[in-house]
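W.,

You were right to be curious about this one. When I first looked at the sequence I had no strong expectations either way, so I just let the prediction run and decided to look at it fresh. Below is the sequence, 493 residues in total, followed by the output.
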Amino acid sequence: MGLPAESLVPDDDPPTWARPVNLLAPLAAPPLTRADVPRLIGDAADLFARSAGFDPTGAIVSGVVAVAASIDDAIRIRLPGASGQFESARLWVCMIGPSGAGKSPSQRPALAPVHDEHSELVAAAAKQRDTSPDERTPARAAFTSDCTVDKLADVLRDNPRGIFYTVDEFDSWLGGIESFARDGGSRNRGEWMRLFDGGPHQVDRVQRGAMFVPNWGASILTATTPAALRRHARKLPADGLFQRFLPIVMARMTVRDSTIGWAEVERAQCAYAAAVRGLYAMTADMVDPPIVRLSTAAGDVYETERTRFIALAEAAESFSESLASHVAKYPAILGRLMLTFHAIADDRRLPDGALPHPCVGAVSEATAQLAARFLRKAYRHAHVVHGDLLGAGSPLELAQAIGRTVLADRMDSFNRRTLTHKCRAFRAATEWQRVAALRALEDYGWAIGESLLLEHGGRWTVNPAVHAMFEDEAEQARARRELVRETLRERFE
């Protein structure tokens, strides 16, 4: 998103510069805290994680997606606007952390009530088969961890409320998408992507025949390492698959907090588990219609955030098509988070501690603000993942290379010819990457250009503040350049 045309002033009228953003700073994701989620989730996750020495981020986000998966997909939230958009509480999350960060252990307390629910459903189905052997017994389930897309049709046919798909390793899930389809990975990939949206789905196969699935929907929780994500970057184009996930970055393990007692952790986890099991018992057919409404104030929060997300998506196009595609899904994801947080909001608890049906009462302003706060933090995680982990060869990386060249050569201005001569990354880049990188330099306040259409020439004026603000980076760039020159001189002398 470049600067508007009216901001591109003539040379004899010096521009008014904004403070430049540190384009060269390493991207960092802020940890999630108990203040970012409803108390039932935050207390259980935070106390467990700190007592075990884990980053609470993983336990917190696991709790959020587990609560979302426990809500019947037929219970939907109505979002503002005349179009009548509805969303179910269906979330996809990918936890990203180094080996030993405790990704899998962080999930276990959040998933424990889901596993308990599943065990009871399986046992009840087995008992029904024993008592009525001649009748088909639906294979009821709360989750699955290893399932091809063809088998998933059977699972979802018997579980119209949706399923929770939990897989420890994102690598194995992604590999399964590419390898199991009989008629090619693209069809298989499309079937998985439709799970994010839910809704009726007709399956027709030559060998298996026809099958109607009332709701082709699933919440997904998976995990991977930064190295594995970089390795699979080529399999993660901006086609919408990985963009459906909220990528959440976990830090390494820390020292255990020995001041937290076992009884305190157990009490918080029991309260969380009871809430999750209670949500599983609440079905859409208990109310008519099964619709959750936003209060007027909550609707205003949603509209404000939606406008902000549209601007973020447009700005993200400057350096990452993948991030822009991801952020474009935020209005729907925000609605899903509002429904999830509303269902387990502490201010809705009855005197006995139980939670009423999600369709009872409207989403409060406080709950809407909490969902918006959570998604704003999630955006910063996504910025790290799409801009750093998946950003090799991206326009942002090229913009950083141009920025280092500007600093190293103390440029007051530059044009296409200058960059081609002095910046190797610019020479190797494609035209669209060059345009996007220069747009990013404008967005970050580093330069103002006459034209982004490089074939028309044009000159970019450098913000004088960047040389003063980033003198250390400039000195490092000049030192690296001098080291290269010195090495070449020694080689050929």
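Here's what jumped out at me. The first strand starts at residue 76 and ends at 78. And, maybe more interesting for your project: Residues 1-11, 180-184 have pLDDT under 50 and may be disordered.

Coffee later to discuss?

I.
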